């Protein structure tokens, strides 16, 4: 089968052996894949958790059809249209744990379905399960113009947040954030953005920050968060190391929690997917929760898809059709 593999000379489409499902695994005939920021690092040889390095089939988000079931796989049957996340997505066939996938709604094509699994699982966990958002609260999403950022704002609104603030350093994308739930859009590269947040919250700061940037905005996030507020760190786009104002953190009594899928067990991931199904799946099926597709590329043009992502001018998801 064809797959996009990282090797000694970089990533390229290669012929590899088609995998065989074992245990609770499902063999998926992949029809479309969504690109994610972590893919760009792995394409350059960087590890993502335990994955990465020479011989790695890249990709972590897909939509397709069930082709074969492992002996212990449950909840799906051959021919079902599904979408999910996991390793080795950029291929004609991939394996997925039966608890790490969703049935693709009948009103979505494969390209649309491939945009959702990572964003839904990541941001339902960050905003609802860990962030504990409640109706009437205020939420700030750092890096809001990414696919997962757009989903975070929509989930916050769905859960009744009275004020949703999104950040983007790009003026065009910042101008479109209101289409996806933002009541206010701020430029996190502008030193005055904290003042804008405080003004919008009557000087109190937001109840919850979903932070995909960290690094350079860490202390500003503390200043923009209310006393006894919460910061959920889900990314490092602003760098992995930075100065941190521990006194301000203590004075505001902020709960600061880091989350990632890289160190979660399969049991934890299954629980996260189950929580999405149980809590917000109706909004997915009704298309209340959805992501824009910036551009679709053919599998043979996957290098161009990555160049498009690295240019950092897109809004929403970049999709590869397999």
UniProtKB/TrEMBL annotation:
Location of the Enoyl reductase (ER) domain: 7-320
Gene3D superfamilies per UniProt: Medium-chain alcohol dehydrogenases, catalytic domain, NAD(P)-binding Rossmann-like Domain
Keywords of the record: NADP
Superkingdom to which the source organism belongs: Bacteria
Pfam families reported in the protein's UniProt record: ADH_N, ADH_zinc_N
Protein's recorded name: Zinc-binding dehydrogenase
Organism field: Bradyrhizobium agreste
Lineage: Bacteria, Pseudomonadati, Pseudomonadota, Alphaproteobacteria, Hyphomicrobiales
